[in-house]
Amino acid sequence: MRRRLFAPLCVSAALLTACGVLPGTGGPDRSTVTVWLMKDSASQEFLDRFIADFEHDHPDLDLDVRIQEWTGVGDKVEAALESDGENGPDVIEVGNTQVPRYVVGRGLLDLTLESAAKWGRDDWLPGLAEPGQQRFHQYGIPWYAANRVVIYRKDLFEQAGVTALPRTRAEWLAATEKLNADGRQGVYLAGQDWYTLSGFIWDEGGDLATEDGGRWQGALDTKAALRGMDFYRRLQALGRGPVAADEEHPPQAGVFATGRVAQIVAVPGLARAVLEQNPALEGELGFFPVPGKSGDRPGAVFTGGSDLVVPRNTDVREGAVAVVAALTGAAWDTELARTMNYVPNKAKLAGAVAGEEGVAAMAAGAAQGRATPSTPEWAAVEADNPIKGYMTKVLTGADPATEARRAARRITRALTVS
């Protein structure tokens, strides 16, 4: 499909000075596959190499890669899916939890057959694969993942006499209690960090919301979810994180950089922001997976990242599917992970990033990754997030069961489609 609109940036191996195919190149049998990728998802150098390799292997196809901004991209994608297909994308990168939003209008190509027969769907990270799936049909194809780990101060661990990194929740609490002394904060955990809470809830076998017969309802009031909240309460108390704010108010990187804070829960990339604010910590930051209930596997974590989707209105279906297959296949997926410090889309590919401590810790946790409930209405929950208020009330002494029921009812109302 020849597309030349909506283009902040175009990249093509066939052309260095402008977008599109050079006059006189290509031919009547060549087609252009337009690919929308998000800003900073892949480096320019990676894209140059991928495009050159893909076009070499597919001499009948040209790639037109157009970089998009995350801000406002949801409405832009919906407009492209609802259009007549002219001047729009053939492959789109979307956030993994955004896929249900686009499935609703039936604007995405069903890639179930390719996923099961050729792409190894059963091996994908669940936190990437599950949001891309609706009623056993696969629309979003996992590309890369990122998730939270524990970033810690090696010097403060040494001062507190913590010589072994915790692998279980019990060990984590015990170590954090030792760290929370002598002017140190054992952990800085904001009271409304609901993504971190979600992992503890999942680890207990609970969920934020559940579906039964197509109807969603909040599930914070289950015994499992309450156990997850109780662990959060015990851990959060071993520091001075604000109970009525999330991890961005104030930004926890700044708190970690300037204070005697032993641990935070964050994506490994946040370490760069810490070092920018306090270069003296160079060499003192370490990483380990969020501990689980037992030592045989890390704890569950929220998995962020991206899937690739194909609009139904594409007129180069085979070419679009070929691009998805190449980008998400083992060779280029692991290359992207190494280049950008991501987690590959399959746990068995984690060895590709084993040499980088933070990414290796992230990859170990990603095997237990989950995503928010796979319904387009979940955006309404986050818009006026009752989970945050629930957490603050529990941390300030309110009865957990009572507040969980109230929050669960609010989640149910937000997820109920009239």
Explain what this protein looks like in three dimensions.
There is one protein chain. The chain has 418 residues and is an alpha+beta fold. It contains 17 helices and 14 strands. The strands form four sheets. Strands 1, 2, 3, 4, 7, 13 and 14 form a seven-stranded mixed beta sheet that branches. The chain has a three-stranded antiparallel beta sheet with strand order 11-8-12. It has a two-stranded antiparallel ribbon with strand order 5-6. The model is unreliable at 1-26 (pLDDT under 50).
Radius of gyration: 23 Å
**Overall mean pLDDT score?**
92
Tally of strands: 14
- Globally, the shape reads globular
Helices and strands: which structural class? alpha+beta
Question: Helical content, roughly?
Answer: 25-40%
Portion in beta strands: 15-25%
Query: Which oligomeric state applies?
Result: single chain
Spatial separation of the terminal alpha carbons: 38 Å
Helical segment tally?
A: 17
Low-confidence stretches: 1-26
